[in-house]
Amino acid sequence: PYSSSFQKRCSSVMSPVYIATLIFSFIVVATFYQKRQGFANIPPGPKPWPVVGNLGGFLIPSVLRRRCGQESDSTATNAAYALMEQAKVYGNVYSLHAGRQLLVVLNGIVFAPYGPSWRKQRKFCLTTLRNFGLGKLSLEPGIMQGLATIKTELLRLSEESGGAGVDMAPLISNGVSNVICSLILGQRFHHKDREFRTMLALMVRGLEICVNSPAVLINIFPLLYYLPFGVFKELRQMVGDITAFLKRIIAEHRETLDPDNPRDLIDMYLMEVLAKQAAGEEDSSFTEDDLFYIIGDLFIAGTDTTANSVLWILLYMVLHPDIQDKVQAEMDEVVGTDRVPSLTDKGSLPFTEATIMEVQRLTAVVPLAIPHMTSETIEFWGYTIPKGTVVLPNLWSVHRDPTVWDDPDSFNPARFLDMEGKLLRRECFIPFGIGRRVCMGEQLAKMELFLTVTTLLQAFKFRLPEGVPPPPLHGRFGLTLAPCPYTVCVSRHS
Ligand code: HEM
């Protein structure tokens, strides 16, 4: 979801005059302190470094940070955890600085700026995706087709591995991504398609270095994006490759567009662009450039999030074989073995649903949601949060809040069930965010999670390879929280 605004920002800073570093730094430092003085009553927070603010740590190599005790393995990989720890010092609402940009982090409680243009684009995307089946039973056959391939491949790879286990990440990413790709690009990709596999790998790596490497400093010094080495060069290369891939697909659609027979979101959008042009709406927010950003956002938002959620759920099943048995027993009783699970079974599988939800609670795959920005100065919990402040809602901390959840760090699906074993809706369970910017793909993601988890657990028992220790559970933070790499062995369940 970040790629679009990030690119827009990068391209808009290409000024012909590059001010000499000293003068530049002086101005930044001066303005920084001037601006800080203007912030009265903002929430408390750690003292920022000059110029870079609280992102200064990224200037120190992580080896040194670890040696000085400033970073443990888990904080390095889970920024949400680190932000929750800071709340113990500064309270549940505190402030940080990314360079001069004020950030407020909210604990315990896609980039287009909120406004009329975002509203129009979101409405268009939701209506179009619904027309093509988002949140509807009509999408089920497409999802099941992908799952059939995953089952066959998983069994084959597991047998081939000779007990060493299979890394499921590429297979699951491909299957999940094909669902959103069929809706927006009108095509599915074979799991051995090399170009598509590369795109998925680039996306994962790109999200990781955007938030968890010195590339973060591009937010303060956009010109760093053009440095010809290290993660900066790597990021530029990735953005170029993904851009070329998506632009080529858009161009193919333009050439083969049949207005009487729209195939997917790209076709619908191109028709909207043509309609606006015909109506003489020059300042329309529907342009081919916008289409590119939307497709990129949906591709990224619809793949990494859901794939990581599935991988987390399967990992928890491997680590808790008793819960895996219970889920399978419920499915044996309700679905049996003569047919594959269907969305119509959802209401009859409360323990399975509770298990999925409990893993989503513990892992919060989009732990810091998507940064928001205040469009007005507001008063919040006695603090003044100025207009233009970036607000980070720490969803991870809501899911681990001990005042809401008993023993929040333990894995206990039963917390989502009432005394009669019926599913409980818990207000503080917000893996998809809340409010106007709540996840656009929530319905789709829930369908995919349910069908993927039930279909795989109906077919297989999952376990770690013999003698292989479980991966650490803090995960890898890269905008989304992914499990650390692991392999599994599968055997037929029934
Ligand atoms: C388990 C899977 C998923 C999780 C946990 C998840 C979670 C989230 C979260 C936390 C946000 C930010 C909400 C906020 O800032 O308040 C978000 C935004 C978004 N998600 Fe998802 N998401 C998932 C799957 C999907 C899928 C499959 C799609 C594809 C349609 C999608 C599309 C989006 C979009 C477009 C936004 C930005 C909405 C806006 O800014 O108006 N997500 N998601």
From TrEMBL:
It comes from the Eukaryota. One of its GO terms (biological process) is organic acid metabolic process. Pfam families: p450 (PF00067). Its cofactor is heme. Keywords: Heme, Iron, Membrane, Metal-binding, Monooxygenase, Oxidoreductase, Transmembrane, Transmembrane helix. InterPro entries: Cyt_P450, Cyt_P450_CS, Cyt_P450_E_grp-I, Cyt_P450_E_grp-I_CYP2D-like, Cyt_P450_sf, Cytochrome_P450_fam2. The keyword Transmembrane helix applies. One of its GO terms (molecular function) is heme binding. One of its GO terms (cellular component) is membrane. Heme binds at C439. The chain crosses the membrane at residues 12-33. It is found in: Membrane. SUPFAM superfamilies: Cytochrome P450. Gene3D superfamilies: Cytochrome P450. Belongs to the cytochrome P450 family. This is Uncharacterized protein. It comes from Mola mola.
